[in-house]
Amino acid sequence: MNNNNLESDVYKTLLESTRAIPWAIDWETKKFEYIGPQIEELLGWSQDSWATAQEWIDRIHEEYREEITTYCITQSESGIDHEADYPALTKDGGYIWIRDVVHVVRENGVTKKLIGFMFDISERKRLENELLEANKRLKAFSYQDGLTGLANRRLYDQTLETEWPRAMRNKQPISMILIDIDFFKEFNDLYGHLEGDSCLQTISRALETVTTRSTDLCARYGGEEFVLLLPGTDQDSAMEIAEKTRQLIRVLKIPHKGSSIDEFVTISAGVCTLIPEINQSPSILFEKADKQLYLAKHKNRNCVMCD
Fold first, then answer.
1. Which candidate, 67, 72, 74, places its Cα nearest to that of 23?
2. Catalytic one of 62, 208, 224, 240
3. How far apart are CA 269 and CA 294, in angstroms?
4. Cβ contact 35:23 at 8 Å
5. Beta strands 217-222 and 225-231, pairing class
6. 21, 52, 85, 100, 209 from 71: Cα distances, Å
7. 240 noted as active-site residue
8. Strands 82-89, 31-35: parallel, antiparallel or unpaired by DSSP?
9. From the centroid of its chain, how far is CA 81?
10. Residue 192: left if φ>0, alpha if ψ -120 to 50, beta else—which one?
11. pLDDT in tens, 14-30
């Protein structure tokens, strides 16, 4: 046997015994010169079905097809070795994530052939997606109040910083309702902190039903204080929402024998509406709402005051 043939057969055997799938394409004709038999085990398509580069293109998921094809053609024409990750169509209609590692063979500055390997990276992609989802959940938790599940102070601060300049550009009002549970210290002293936590959670669930627009934010500001941030809401609408909220909490009928104004838990609220002006700090909205809340609590509580 010719030594060259023996070496070629050994090389081919080694290639076809690996999990990586070797392939080669004649760049001038765009025809496959070779693709490893492992391709059928992985994707279900026989070796013979990979006739030209068109079969490769057609078996890329349609959402990725144009981007991957354009990238690979550009890199190949330029003589640049490259890699590409994409979901490849299986014969039974599913998809498996593939990584193509491509070496460009050139002669006299002209691309003549592509030689590469396909790798199954499905497990890697699964782990990447799990990590991505875990990071998303972690980020969500970082913006969430641990006790009530509402947005926390951090998300409130970021949202106000975003909505304030938007309202300024559009010359639109932005409203805030600052809410405080009346005699909450007395509630904790009388019923205990576990019942206090339960009270906060019940009120939080009620507050979440008050606003329905995606731009509105309901957040726990701290302790027994909550804030409703209402972009694009005028003063009359904000007052209406605040009064609706006050009534809603009273209707919950959470017993409160430590309150000097009612047998059930009540809230006080301060409302402020502004159309932001240049050189005006976003903090002024909170300051004005807080002032109205102060007046509400000193008026006799269980009421709404507006700037």
1. 72
2. 224
3. 9
4. yes
5. antiparallel
6. 21, 18, 11, 12, 48
7. no
8. unpaired
9. 34
10. left
11. 455 557 999 999 999 99
Task: With beta carbons less than 8 A apart as the criterion, state whether 102 and 73 touch.
Answer: no
The SS3 of residue 254 is: coil
Q: Which residue's structure tokens are 């559009």?
A: 170
pTM > 0.85: no
pLDDT tens digits, one per residue of 161-207 = 999 999 999 999 999 999 999 999 999 999 999 999 999 999 999 99
DSSP 147: T
**30 contacts: CB under 8 Å, gap ≥ 6:** 52, 53, 54
d(CA 245, CA 294): 18
User: pLDDT at position 135, please?
Assistant: 76
Q: How far apart are the first and last CA of the chain?
A: 98
Query: What is the three-class DSSP state of 39?
Result: helix
